[in-house]
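To make this tangible, we now present a fold written out as C-alpha cells:
***
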Amino acid sequence: MVYPLVTVSIPVYNCEKYIERSINSVLKQTYPNIEILLVDDKGNDHSSDVIKRIQSEYPEKIRIIEHKSNQGLSIVRNTGIDHAKGEYLFFLDGDDEIVPDCIEELYRLISETHSSIAVGEMIAKNTFKNIEYKIFPFNHSLKSLKENDIVFEHFCNGTWPVSACNKLLRVNFFRHNKIYFVKGLYSQDELWSFQTALKLDSIAFLHKPTYLYYLHGESIIFNKTKRNFENHQAIVEYFSKAYNEVSSIKKKHILKHLIIFKETTLTMQWKFMKDDSIYWKQNYKRLQKAPSLSILDYFSFFYSINHKKKNLFQNLPVSIGYKLFKWRFER
C-alpha cells in the first residue's frame, strides 16, 4: 500500500515545557510516512535548543524552519502551508499532542471519502482540575459533506470546530485557492475556517478522539486582552466584506454566522473585561455596523427564534443594550 507523505506542522514559540511531548506524539504515530515541520518563531525561552536536540536524533524525520524574528501564529501557519513537502498537512500546536493513530485514521477517512479535509474529535485535558472532556463537538449524524453550498451551510450552522488544528488537509486545495491566515490576527482560526468554507468542496468527520488539547495557565483561551477583541472587530469586517460579494443564499448563512459570532465576542469581552464598560459599549456600537437581520427577516422561517432574539439584543440603543446584556449575564 502507498502511504502519501503527511507534513505535521508545529509552531515553536515559548513552549519549552511542552514541545518535546508534542513532537514525541508525532514520532509515535502508526502512520508510516510523516515529516515533522517545526517552525521556530523566535520566542524568548529555550524552545530552539530543545527542538535542535530532538532533530539531531531524528534528522530524517524533522525539519526546522527558523523565522528571522517573531512573526506571529498566522505567519507560522502560512509557513507550514508553503513549505510542507507532504501531499497532506496537519497543524499541531506546540503544547498539545495527538493520539497514536491520529494521522492513520484521518488519512483512511480522507482517502475513502475523497474529501479535501478530514476532522477528528478533540479532548481537553484540564490541568487545573485534572479532568478530561470533549470540546468543539460536531454533529455525529454526519459522515461527510459534498458540494460547496452544503459545506458552507453546515459551517455557518456550527457543525464542526473552527480550530485549524486536528484537521488533515489536502495541501494543494489551500495553495490553489490561496487560502492563508491573515497576519496579525489572534483569532486567526475563525477567519481562516470561514474563508476555507467559502471555497471548500468536501469534508469528512471521524467520530473518535484524535487530539489532546491542554488547558494550562499559559493557554490563549485564558489570556484574552483588548487586542483580541480588536481582532474580533477586524474579523467581523472580513465577514461583512464577504457578505457583499456572495450569492443571496450564502448571505443568509453568513447572517446566521455573524449573529452567533457577535454574541460570542460580546460575551467573551464581558467575561474578560467587564470592568471596562466604556470599551464594551464602544464595541457593541461598532458591531452594529455589520450586516444584521431586516424587519422582513423576522417573518422568515429561515432564521430561528434564537437568531432573531440575539439579533434584536445586538441592535438596541447602546445604553439599553448594555443594561440588558448585564442583566442577562449577572442574574
Remarks:
- The first helix runs from residue 19 to 27.
- The radius of gyration is 21 Å.
